[in-house]
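#structure-requests
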Amino acid sequence: SLDLLLAISQSAKEDAIKLLGIPEEKIKVIYAGIDQDFSRLEKVNIKALKQRYGISDAFIMFAGGIDFKKNIEGLITAYSNLPQNMINRNQLVITGKASKEQIQKYSDLAKNNGVEGRVIFTGFIPKEDLIALYNTTELLVFPSLYEGFGLPVIEAMACGTRVITSNV
């Protein structure tokens, strides 16, 4: 029997009630927070940072886990539908640990949508580089299909980054 469920957000609590049938009084919301290191940086060695991850231009960024609910397919498709001058000016940088199969799948999607070479997969990156990328990107795009909270959104905002996200 369940004594108490800790939920990361009101949305996660509502899902636990609705989908799992857990009584409301057995759920406590404890909101997530971020490390204070996520902040605006005075100085970033942009050239070295970009070189480390194969970025050559200004860039739009996604940060987070690579799984179905993160909507990477939708992100790549939406990016490929931008006006060509925007694609030429901004690469799409997707950070997060991904399998070879996932990277191949998304690389094929980029190729099939005419943006091969414009979509960069960094794999997992250390926190210091993530903070630097948040500080230098044009914007974070986080088109998730479902989130309990969405830490990358508030991490990016703490760094002064513009954010486009979904409302789920």
